[in-house]
Amino acid sequence: MQQSGLHIALNDRLKRSYQQYREQMDDRYPRVMKTLPNLDANWVRLGMLLLQRGPTTIMVLSERLTISHPAVLQIAKRLKAEDRVADFRDRRDKRKHMLALTSKGRYDFTGFSAHQQLQDAWLDKLLAPTGLSNVLKAWDNQLVDTGSSGNLFGRLFGIEIVPFQSDYRSDFERLNRHWIEHYFEVELKDQAQFDDPQSTILDAGGEILFAITQTGIVVGTCALIVHDQTQVELAKMAVQEHFQGMGVGRLLVDAIIARARVLGFEEIILESNTVLAPAIALYRAVGFEPRPTQTTSDYARCNVAMQMSL
Fold first, then answer.
1. How far is CA 9 from CA 14, 127, 134, in A?
2. Which of 78, 121, 253, 305 is positioned for an S-S bond with 291, CB 3.0–4.6 A?
3. Do 187 and 90 have their domain in common?
4. Pairwise CA distance, residues 238 & 178, whole Å
5. Closest among 227, 247, 241, 230 to 157, alpha carbons compared
6. 164 and 83 share a domain?
7. Cβ distance 267 to 247 under 8 Å?
8. Within-domain flag for 147
9. 49 in a domain, yes or no?
């Protein structure tokens, strides 16, 4: 039977949209999965379950994943070798063998979980219209011309910038500790800010902002630290590795600069290191310039100083 013009048009649009979608997935997910190499579906499911439940017995994991006890132990052995999972005995019942995510495991599976939730939310959003043509139009509108307004994920998922809340204190440390320990070492001033951001940053008039996904996961943070009546510092800028390259850092930096202007400061400065090339490129893009004079840093890791007049 000969296809109608509408049938041909819909078929062509589906193919074209699906190809664009696959290209975006192929580009994004190698970067998302690089922190979880060689993990099959059951390994990811186990990590996600531990993220949701916290420390869990082997028996419960076996039941929830519908796999055998030996299979759970085999997965746990591999994740333990990669420092993503730790095992211990239940304090209340030493016969019970339990598994829990390490700090590294929580970091990786939090990022992976955020991506999974956002992808589900996106599909729900696109399938909400009742008419097929409306669905396809929405799909096309989201996929085309990604270069002009950020990539696919940056445009599809609204990232909200919100102020400090006590519930986000652990995220402030989690995100910043990860990049600091990856490249450098946590220093005394870092630890003081992690332990008590209220007295070290907020009580002095500073601010801490967070990038939150529409599903409520913190994927980025940045602080504004007051030096004096005219000068503030952009500091502790961190983005969950799985969300880097999506414009989250730019949202945070723009928000911090905007807050500094609203609060009436004249200059904003920052310190960094040449090894953090993407971050320095971002700072240059928004208008930061190298400081003309040598400065003494409180951090051993800093070899770059920049400033911006507000």
1. 9, 19, 14
2. 305
3. no
4. 9
5. 247
6. no
7. no
8. no
9. yes
One-letter amino acid at 138 equals A
* Side chain identity at residue 172, one-letter code: F
Domain CATH for 78: 1.10.10.10
Q: Does the residue 52 lie in any domain?
A: yes
Query: For 246-293, how does the pLDDT look when each residue is reduced to its tens digit (9 = 90+)?
Result: 889 999 999 999 999 999 999 999 999 999 999 999 999 889 999 876
pLDDT digits (tens, 9 = 90+) for 16-32: 665 665 555 555 555 55
Shared-domain flag, residues 168 and 305: yes
For the domain that residue 180 is a member of, what is the CATH number? 3.40.630.30
**Pair 103, 189 in one domain:** no
Residue after which a domain boundary falls, among 62, 82, 117: 117
Residue 32: how many CB atoms within 10 A of its CB?
19
Q: Which domain holds residue 89?
A: 1-117
The two tokens of residue 123 are 């599909």
100 and 42 part of one domain: yes
Residue 111: which residues within 8 A CB-CB, separation 6 or more? 32, 35, 219, 240, 241, 242, 243
DSSP secondary structure of 49-90? HHHHH-SEEHHHHHHHHT--HHHHHHHHHHHHHTTSEEEEE-
Q: Using one digit for the tens of pLDDT, what is the confidence trace for 167-224? A: 999 999 999 999 999 999 999 999 999 999 999 999 999 999 999 998 899 999 999 9
Same domain, 301 and 164: yes
Residue 276 has phi, psi (to 5 degrees) of -95, 60
pLDDT of residue 88: 80
Cα-flanking dihedrals φ and ψ of residue 129, to 5°? -60, 145
Whether residue 280 is contained in a domain is answered as yes
Domains: count for the chain? 2
What is the C-alpha separation between 224 and 310, in angstroms, rounded?
Answer: 14
Q: E strands, the chain, where?
A: 56-57, 85-89, 97-101, 160-163, 207-212, 218-226, 231-239, 267-272, 289-290, 304-309
Q: Would you tell me how many other CB atoms lie within 10 Å of the CB of residue 284?
A: 12
